[in-house]
Amino acid sequence: MDGFGNNLQHPYPLKGSKGASLPPRPTLVFLIALFGLYVCYLSFNQIRMESKHVEENGAQEQDEHVCAKPYVPSEELPYVHFPKPKGYSRAECSCNPVRFFVIVSMQRSGSGWFETLLNSHPNISSNGEIFNRVDRRQNISSIVQTLDKLYDLDWLTSAAKNECTAAFGFKWMLNQGFMDHHDEILSYLNKKGVSVIFLFRRNTLRRLISVLANNYDRDAKQLNGTHKSHVHSEEEAEILAKFKPELDVSTLVSNIRDVEKYMGDCLDSFNTTRRMILYYEDIIRNRNVLFQVQEFLGVPVRKLVSRQVKIHTRPLPDLVRNWEDVNSRLNRTEYARFLDGADYVK
Ligand SMILES: *[C@@H]1O[C@H](CO)[C@@H](O)[C@H](O)[C@H]1NC(C)=O
Ligand SMILES: *[C@@H]1O[C@H](CO)[C@@H](O)[C@H](O)[C@H]1NC(C)=O
Ligand SMILES: *[C@@H]1O[C@H](CO)[C@@H](O)[C@H](O)[C@H]1NC(C)=O
Ligand SMILES: *[C@@H]1O[C@H](CO)[C@@H](O)[C@H](O)[C@H]1NC(C)=O
Ligand SMILES: *[C@@H]1O[C@H](CO)[C@@H](O)[C@H](O)[C@H]1NC(C)=O
What we know:
By secondary structure, this protein is α/β, with parallel strands linked by helices. The protein has one domain (74-343): 3-Layer(aba) Sandwich (Rossmann fold). Helix content is 42%, strand content 8%. Helix 4 links the parallel strand 2 (124-126) and strand 3. 22% of the residues are buried.
């Protein structure tokens, strides 16, 4: 981004010629008058150049001249945008800067809930899992095309707030092409000025239980014949939580290790982004984390709310059919910390 301050040199030659003896008076008057004319000519030229400059650089440049620039720390300037959607006008908010963001997460890590929290803010628009459609992530060119369209703000979903959106993004699961094309995606995000929120779950064991329970419900459709990944009432949560999956103990440790490595590789690959690393458990325990998120996104800080209700609220032994086996398998491993990890609040 440029367009901040123009760098024209001072046009007037300030240094006089030293040591010359003064010419006669009429000549002096004439010279001064001539100099005056020259100054006028220079200024006139400069004005003409400036207006030409504005015309050539089109609407964006012009808007920046008209808009009172909000204060943005210089290191954040690459992450602040003034998009011009084709489908609608940003109207009275066209001078408000917009931050682009992406929530990078894994299935069953609370990202759906997190997104409903963000969308309860009038200036945040998070547009769901746009890469769940395979054709949008077929290859890096279809990914880039999708991202470009999205960040032009010409992407209308139910999360759209239109003109007064100040933070615009979506969520992206690691297994939706994100890690397959990580080099290209990294350079895209940095070039485009996209801020990244990583949202993971510390307790990989609980996540695994949630994955299995959700897979089960996909077939069983326990809520009156519909499959639900997220629920809005305690009754619904209770019905879904009744199912206790049985974990495959023989692959449990390698399964957890793979997931941990996947998250670690992701954080390494994207360590040069403007980013914030969040854990689901931390948000549950301390809602102040949500204030930090809003500061990170440059929106006015307020209380965020979600209508979603947590499904698995019980201690772990109540959630798994073969708890004894699971406990003794993990008990003496580095993953023993997951066994008593309570992420529920009552
Ligand atoms: C990328 O995928 C799209 C379909 O999403 C396809 O139309 C296009 O031909 C592919 N491009 C390349 C370079 O493979
Ligand atoms: C947030 O949205 C409101 C209208 O809903 C608008 O008045 C305000 O300027 C917006 N704030 C930012 C930072 O864009
Ligand atoms: C299922 O349907 C019955 C009757 O139609 C209704 O009373 C009940 O609330 C529904 N349950 C859920 C979990 O949607
Ligand atoms: C990012 O991670 C790589 C290892 O994957 C490391 O070499 C590099 O120093 C890290 N960069 C930053 C800025 O932390
Ligand atoms: C680990 O297992 C041993 C024996 O099975 C048991 O005595 C101990 O209490 C277990 N520790 C935890 C933290 O569950």
